[in-house]
């Protein structure tokens, strides 16, 4: 096999998502193994400290390992590069208060990046003076970005999530 | 608890009585998500096994001794930004009910704890479901200590410990519901200024100098609440500052 053919083969396999490929013929044998990074990305800053929240970095990892490991820096924001930003719709805060991604520190977030939401699905809680407000998504689609850190103040009309509509 | 004689217009119609329940607020929320719930529906339990306070805090209550219930209301006449009025009406409704049995040691600790002197008698957990710019449902969780004989925390008490009497929950619950309905109906008539003034008159640590803690300890005087329900406290240099919940603590 020529060097270029080997490069093309590696390129092809890296895009395929396969973790390991072994090819053997009469005159050559090639073994390609993807070196999956152990700590692929840091958890996004928006992640809450709930132990069950690990689903978010997993989703990030799937997106970021798809390119060949040696050629691209993994995207750390969990955003799918194919998303057309102009089509995204923001779920905004209807009030001033404190933004919470889950109903208590022990429970998982209502939504994570990559989750599909229906209009009417609770996406967060905003607390104001000990009144707890469940905020529903007004669009159906996929959560592509969480714009606010857990337990931080939000203003009226502040974008909270970006949703790619169905 | 099957013999409630109600004299209300709509609060407690119907009452859903659950012998045991994790959390009446969670039950009410799930019910409202599944089907249309009539305004005034009450979820009542004799034994709440995983009662909730705010943000993961637990509400502990001995079975059969206390009131643990939730009321589903639909205050669609309130803007989201006006929701503190709902807190005022509910707190005042509970206060007026308890005031039939207790003297003026009874106070509302801003924003919505019920105290007698320094003892906590009850708590309120209001959870709103927001749709667009409206409050679709408000789920009003109420825990009131009635006949419980002792508490793990020295800061809690019950009506029985304070008055020496045992109470029938079947008799008390309709009175509580009636009292809450009265203040809620006044809210529906938009008597917000009167309700607010009555609420301020019942506030723990109202209008006198006490020690508070914000970033540091300071001497301050509660002079009111603003339109969002923030506590207005006059500090040592006579300036008035508005505090969010958790930005200020009472020292007592």
Structural commentary:
The complex is a heterodimer of chains A (166) and B (252). Chain A has helices spanning 3-16, 55-64, and strands at 20-24, 29-33, 89-92, 97-100, 116-117, 122-128, 131-136, 141-146, 152-154, 159-165. Chain A has 166 residues and is of the alpha+beta class. Chain A folds into two domains: 3-53, no CATH class; 72-165, RNA polymerase II/Efflux pump adaptor protein, barrel-sandwich hybrid domain (OB fold (Dihydrolipoamide Acetyltransferase, E2P)). Chain A has a four-stranded antiparallel beta sheet, with no helix packed on it. Chain B is an alpha+beta fold and 252 residues long. In chain B, 24% of the residues lie in helices and 31% in strands. Chain B has helices at residues 24-34, 84-98, 159-163, 169-188, 192-201; strands spanning 15-21, 42-48, 67-73, 106-109, 113-116, 119-131, 134-144, 209-213, 217-225, 231-234, 240-243, 249-250. In chain B, the strands form two sheets. Chain B has a seven-stranded mixed beta sheet with strand order 1-2-3-7-6-5-4, with helices on both faces. In chain B, strands 11-10-9-8-12 form a five-stranded antiparallel beta sheet, with no helix packed on it. In chain B, a hairpin with a 5-residue loop joins strand 9 (217-225) and strand 10 (231-234). The N and C termini of chain B lie far apart (37 Å). The mean pLDDT of chain B is 94. Chains A and B meet through strand 6 and strand 7 of A and helix 2 and strand 6 of B.
């Amino acid at each position: 096999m020529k060097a270029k053919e080997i490069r093309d083969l590696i390129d092809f396999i890296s895009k395929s998502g396969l973790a390991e490929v072994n090819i053997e013929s009469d005159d050559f044998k090639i073994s390609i193994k993807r070196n999956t990074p152990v700590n692929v990305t840091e958890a996004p800053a928006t992640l809450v400290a709930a132990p069950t929240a690990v689903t978010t970095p997993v989703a990030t990892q799937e997106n970021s390992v798809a390119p060949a490991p040696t050629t691209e820096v993994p995207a750390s924001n969990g955003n799918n590069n194919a998303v057309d930003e102009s089509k995204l719709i923001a779920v905004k805060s209807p009030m001033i208060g404190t933004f919470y991604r889950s109903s208590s520190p022990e429970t998982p977030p209502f939504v994570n990046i990559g989750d599909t939401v229906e209009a009417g699905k609770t996406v967060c809680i905003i607390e104001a003076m000990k009144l707890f407000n469940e905020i529903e998504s007004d669009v159906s689609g996929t959560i592509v970005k969480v714009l606010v850190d857990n337990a931080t103040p939000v203003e009226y009309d502040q974008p909270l999530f970006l949703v790619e509509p169905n | 608890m099957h013999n409630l004689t109600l004299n209300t217009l709509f609060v407690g119609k119907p009452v859903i009585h659950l012998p045991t329940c994790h959390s009446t607020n969670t039950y009410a929320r799930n019910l409202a998500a599944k089907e249309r719930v009539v305004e005034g529906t009450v979820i009542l339990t004799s034994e709440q096994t995983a009662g909730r306070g705010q943000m993961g805090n637990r509400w502990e209550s001995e079975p059969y001794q206390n009131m643990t219930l939730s009321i589903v209301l639909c205050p669609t006449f309130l803007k989201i930004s006006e929701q503190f009025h709902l807190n005022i009406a509910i707190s005042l409704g509970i206060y007026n009910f308890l005031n039939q049995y207790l003297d003026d040691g009874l106070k509302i600790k801003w924003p919505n704890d019920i105290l007698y002197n320094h003892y906590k008698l009850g708590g309120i957990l209001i959870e709103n479901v927001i749709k667009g710019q409206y409050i679709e449902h408000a789920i009003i969780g109420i825990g009131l200590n009635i006949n419980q004989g002792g508490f793990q925390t020295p800061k809690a008490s019950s009506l029985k410990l304070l008055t020496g009497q045992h109470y029938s929950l079947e008799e008390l619950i309709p009175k509580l519901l009636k009292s809450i309905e009265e203040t809620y109906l006044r809210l529906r008539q938009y008597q917000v200024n009167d309700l607010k003034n009555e609420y301020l008159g019942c506030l723990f640590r109202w209008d006198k100098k006490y020690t508070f803690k914000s970033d540091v300890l300071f001497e301050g005087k509660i002079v009111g609440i603003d339109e969002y329900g923030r506590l207005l406290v006059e500090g040592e240099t006579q300036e008035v500052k508005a505090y969010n919940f958790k930005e200020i603590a009472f020292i007592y």
